[in-house]
Amino acid sequence: MIVNLNDVLKKAQAEHYAVGLFNTTDTDMAEAVIAAAEEMNSPVIIGTAEVLLPYGELKLIAPSIRALAERAKVPVVLHYDHGLTFDRCIEALKLGFSSIMFDGSAGDSEQNIADTAEIVKIAHSFGASVEGEIGHVGQASSGDGELTDMYTTPEEAKSFVEATGVDALAVAIGTAHGVYKTKPRLDIERLKEIRAAIDTPLVLHGGSGLSDDDFRNTIAGGIAKVNIFTDLCVAGVRAMEKGIAENKEYLEIRNMKVLEIKNAVMKKMELFGSKNKA
What's the rounded Cα separation, in Å, for the pair 227 and 99? Predict the structure, then answer.
């Protein structure tokens, strides 16, 4: 059953749990994510990101995940993550994505507001939801997730939401994309202040690699959506290495990979509190 962010995040926010976005680049990962959601009876957000398209072209992955979502027994949001260009965002909408994340956070703040507001108008006409981002979610490889002067402020969040009409907002509180080299330092108090300032569901990017307590604390502080990708890749590699070491055949290794990724997704759903919330 295909839904958009509003159908799953408002309930998550009200009941103090989070719904995971699990990005995928192929049908193996997508199958694992949907199977995990059904087994956990959990709502799920599945998609891909613009930076991942070289590894799974949009025109190929979109029909596959849409077909899986349509026959799923749980609510599934088809989410285009970190859309960087209008052309790709519109393409995703035309291919049936029910949600768009437009990311103009790296550029001028006024331009980010104007571009995000325009995407909101277009996406809403498709019946799709929109996630925006302000502040700077860094890259773990460079350690720039700790640039506190680039964290989101409550005032910025409030004015951004009012000016754009986004359905969800990604905030910068100390997380980073990729594999962390050092333990991230999250500003939970900043998160609570943002939550108090706006009613819009909040999103945590750079979730892979955080501790269980980090997740619990951010969800308790107001996060309703958590993005995961790197952890799925790590699970897949682990399964493939094990299969090769055991001299398994290709298709056996493929099934081991799907199962390992599925288990990783289920662990996150349990941790996020979305089990039996479908």
Answer: 14
**Percent of the chain whose pLDDT exceeds 90:** 83
C-alpha–C-alpha distance, residues 267 and 228, integer Å? 12
pTM of this prediction exceeds 0.90: yes
Residues 8 and 19 sit within 8 Å (Cβ to Cβ): yes
pLDDT digits (tens, 9 = 90+) for 150-194: 688 999 999 999 999 999 999 989 876 444 334 567 899 999 999
> How do strand 19-23 and strand 44-49 relate by DSSP bridges?
parallel
| Cβ-based neighbours of 232, under 8 Å, separated by 6 or more | 22, 23, 24, 29, 32, 33, 208, 261, 264, 265
Contact between 185 and 164 (Cβ < 8 Å): no
C-alpha 207/C-alpha 23 separation (Å) is 12
Alpha helices by DSSP H, the chain: 5-15, 27-40, 58-70, 86-94, 109-125, 154-164, 188-197, 212-220, 230-245, 250-272
The residue from 26, 28, 81, 212 that is catalytic is 81
Measured distance CA(147)–CA(79) in Å, rounded? 28
Instruction: Give Cα separations from 68 to 37, 64, 237 (angstroms).
Output: 12, 6, 23
Would you tell me how many other CB atoms lie within 10 Å of the CB of residue 185?
12
| Rounded (10°) angle between helices 230-245 and 27-40 | 110
| 81 a catalytic residue | yes
**DSSP assignment string, 49-69:** EGGGGGGS-HHHHHHHHHHHH
State whether the Cα torsion 219-208-130-27 is positive or negative: negative
Residue with tokens 């009613």: 199
Report d(CA 35, CA 73) in Å as an integer: 10
